[in-house]
Specification:
It is built from two helices and two strands. The chain is mostly helical. The protein has a two-stranded antiparallel ribbon with strand order 1-2. The longest helix is centred in the middle third of the chain and has 59 residues. The termini are far apart.
Length: about 110
């Protein structure tokens, strides 16, 4: 069996290395407002920006989960409990009706 994942990983790494090799001389200055980093290679700034964006996205997702996810779980539990109580009440009512008026054998 051919390890396609390994081959794909090697191809992606090769493309990244070739991209880095062609852009090794391309540099830029990155300013954060209060400090400026000089002569940063372009091939390093692009993956860094991607990883930073991924971490921020994960952070916002977790904040939303903590803020709203627990509340929705509580609401789901409450709705489930209310449904089971309604069903239980309906079953009891139906049982009472059947005990007061037993079904006729001639129906």
């Amino acid at each position: 069996m051919i390890p396609w994942r390994l081959i794909l990983l090697l191809v992606i790494l090769t493309v990244f290395i070739v991209f880095a090799g062609f852009n090794i001389d391309n540099t830029s200055d990155i300013s954060f407002g209060f400090v400026t980093i000089s002569e940063v290679p372009v091939f390093l700034s692009i993956p860094f920006a991607f990883v930073l964006g991924a971490f921020l996205t994960i952070g916002f997702h977790l904040i939303g989960y903590v803020k709203y996810g627990k509340q929705s779980k509580i609401n789901k539990k409450r709705e489930k409990k209310e449904k089971s109580q309604k069903k239980k009440e309906e079953d009891e009512k139906q049982n009472q009706d059947e005990s007061q008026n037993p079904p006729s054998p001639f129906d």
